[in-house]
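[Discussion] Sanity-checking designs against the backbone

I'm trying to build intuition for which residues belong where. Below is a structure token string of 150 positions. I'd appreciate it if someone posts a full sequence so I can compare it with mine line by line.
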């Protein structure tokens, strides 16, 4: 999977391009599916590795991540709707990047289907996603600086 820097940078770029007022929830949403998995690690000691694997697997699906996003949006002080939309944008950006990688796929339609989907454009250890995202951020930054030169 693309590493966290790529996920966060890509989420930040989307937040800028879509002019989201709440950028931090987009960044959290961009790594939320992986955070769920990291939080599942301590659970392995309590419920066993099979239970933790299931928790990670469910959390790394759009349905599972969006359920967690609903919970996060419900406890934050900002508008539930705006916070949830920002988190959901970040989650969507996460799965968009993961969908492009290989050799593994993503269970995008879980719990309806357990089939994995993937485009296999690059492998998980490739620096290509990070490079493309950083170039896009650089272009956006230059464009923003030139547009606000006054």
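Best answer:
Here's mine. Compare freely.
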């Amino acid at each position: 999977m693309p590493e966290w820097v790529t996920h966060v940078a890509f989420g930040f770029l989307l937040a800028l391009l879509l002019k989201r007022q709440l950028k931090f929830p987009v960044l959290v949403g961009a790594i939320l599916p992986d955070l769920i998995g990291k939080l599942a690690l301590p659970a392995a000691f309590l419920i066993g590795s099979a239970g933790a694997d299931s928790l990670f697997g469910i959390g790394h699906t759009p349905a599972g991540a969006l359920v967690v996003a609903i919970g996060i949006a419900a406890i934050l002080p900002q508008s539930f709707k705006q916070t949830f939309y920002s988190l959901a944008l970040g989650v969507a950006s996460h799965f968009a990047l993961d969908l492009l990688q290989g050799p593994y796929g993503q269970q995008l339609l879980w719990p309806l289907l357990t089939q994995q989907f993937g485009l296999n454009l690059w492998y998980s250890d490739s620096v290509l996603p990070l490079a493309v995202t950083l170039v896009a951020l650089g272009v956006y930054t230059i464009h923003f600086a030139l547009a606000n030169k006054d």
